[in-house]
Amino acid sequence: MSVQEYLEKHMLSRKIEEAVNAAVRAKAPDPVLFIAGHMRRAAPAVITRVRARQILDGHGLPAVEVELHTNKAVHRASAAGAAAPEGAAAGAARDAERRRILAKAVAEAVLVINDKVSEALVGMDPQQQAQIDQAIMDLDKAYHKAELGANAMLAVSIAACKAGAAEKEVPLYKHIADLVGKSASTLPVPAITVINGGKHAGNGLPIQEIMILPVGSKNFEEAMQMGSETYHHLKDIILEKYGSDSCNIGDDGGFAPNISSISESLDLVIAAIERAGYNGRIKLAIDVAATDFCVGKKYDLEFKSPKKSGQNFKTADDMIEMYSQLCSEYPLVSIEQPFDKEDWEHSKKLTTLELCQVVGDDLLMSDPERIKRAVNEYTCNALVLKANQVGTVTEAIEVVKQAKDAHWGVMVSHRSGDTDDSFIADLAVGASAGQIKAGAPCRGECLTKYNQLLRIEEELGSEGVYAGENWRTSTS
Question: In the β-sheet with 47-56, what is the strand arrangement from edge to edge?
């Protein structure tokens, strides 16, 4: 084929002329770079390959990382590994068995992505998120994505979302906002973990997390400054009161002093807030994770203690009384998973008291059907969104819309031991969630989310609005 025939076949003469004319009109200082960019944009992006590999998450456990190739670039995403099936292992060998099961599941997911998923997505336009996600979902119609795994599906979906944003030449959060159908200008209030307990720490504290919400800051940057300062003052207070061996951290980066009293833990946080000078500007939240210590229809607040007094084995009504007292004594504005995942009755009782935000985690599992039931029965009034529970970006957006239509609060959440992918930061802004939970201002996989939000706020400039006191009602 001659040069002339090649030019005619691909209509290159016309395309090059158009690019040169565009450079002239734009008065481009570097015409070669301008023309190269113009020609690049003229070629539509298509997915050419999807490759997956096993990596390690923040707990050193197997997770899936995906590289989605287009004819223009490569886009990488990862998602935290799923939990091992209940009852999969017991006794001293439980943790080793859990790791073995996770490694096997991730290895199988990698094979499926490299084969079936890649084949299904090759040739698709990365801007068509809904169609891509549907193609992924069509490969795994099992309940709760049991075949491929929701975390593996999510990694592919996120990589495609990043590719779509790149093709549109817009930031990821703006691309997500387009998918949602709203503007992207609201920065969420961070629910910053400062104390860990429950199954996320080796101390005696029964509840999983105590968090601080800097609702009184003027912007996200100041919110993180307030949170970080309070976190470090808390460390000093724990050191002074309990000694250096009490400054160890839990799974989410919160401190884990060897105390079992919820009130004593909250008192420590209040003291840290006061020492930092932010009294009245920071509110408290707790993640009870009550499913972990529900025995029958009662709750064992000493479930981690080898010597049980028997005095902390409470009924659900006792728990409501405890929560009511905590809300009256502390600036506690949010309680996550206050009861067992199937205790709809008492979650509803607590919600109807309107003491605070009642967040459904295990109760909802980001499942549209469970959310629908909770809305109809007024079982809670906020959703904690863990994207790898739903499986794709499109499904995550749909459950956010479902929660917002019910006038619920929405808390976009990491997973304990997450990967270093910062996608949920862009999701929180793009979906105008109003709240984000990403752990303490300490661990790398936590900070990558917070740091991305700092970048987004800087990029938005005067257009950015910090949710602040409107953390539950952000609807922009």
Answer: 47-56, 62-70, 74-79
Helix or strand or coil: residue 143? helix
CA nearest 338: which of 285, 386, 290, 385? 290
Segment 191-232, tens digit of pLDDT: 999 999 999 999 999 999 999 999 999 999 999 999 999 999
Angstrom distances, CA of residue 278 to CA of 10, 193, 235, 268, 357: 65, 17, 16, 14, 22
Considering only 278-287, 312-321, 334-343, 467-476, which range has the smallest mean pLDDT? 467-476
* Phi, psi (deg, nearest 5) at residue 371: -65, -45
Structure confidence at residue 88 as a pLDDT band (50, 70, 90): very low
User: Does pLDDT of 92 surpass 60?
Assistant: no
Q: What is the 3-state secondary structure (H, E, C) of 16-65?
A: HHHHHHHHHHHCCCCHHHHHHHHHHHHCCCCEEEEEEEEEECCCCCEEEE
Please measure the distance between the N-terminal and C-terminal CA atoms of the chain and give it in whole angstroms.
56
What is the separation of C-alpha 180 from the centre of its chain, rounded to a whole number of angstroms?
Answer: 17
Set 304, 341, 386, 404: catalytic member: 386
Q: What is the pLDDT of residue 420?
A: 94
**3-state DSSP call for residue 322?**
helix
63, 73, 432, 436, 468 from 464: Cα distances, Å: 33, 29, 11, 16, 12
Question: Is residue 70 pLDDT above 90, yes or no?
Answer: yes
Which amino acid is present at 189? Answer: V
- The DSSP element (H or E) to which 405 belongs, if any, is helix 393-405
Q: pLDDT digit string (tens) for 3-26?
A: 777 767 766 677 676 767 777 887
Alpha-carbon Rg for the chain in angstroms: 24
Mutual angle of helices 368-377 and 393-405, in 10-degree steps: 10
Instruction: Scan for tokens 């084929």, then name that residue.
Output: 1
Active site residue 386: yes
User: Three-class SS of residue 330?
Assistant: coil
Structure tokens at 228: 């970080």
Helix pair 150-168, 172-180: axis angle to 10 deg: 100
Q: What Å distances lie between residue 310 and 206, 250, 300, 305, CA to CA? A: 14, 26, 9, 11
Catalytic residue among 252, 343, 361, 426: 252
Q: Which residues have a Cβ under 8 Å from the Cβ of 106 and sit 6 or more positions away?
A: 54, 62, 63, 64, 81, 149, 152
H-only helix segments in 216-343: 220-242, 262-276, 316-329
Query: Do residues 64 and 421 lie in contact, with contact meaning Cβ atoms separated by under 8 Å?
Result: no
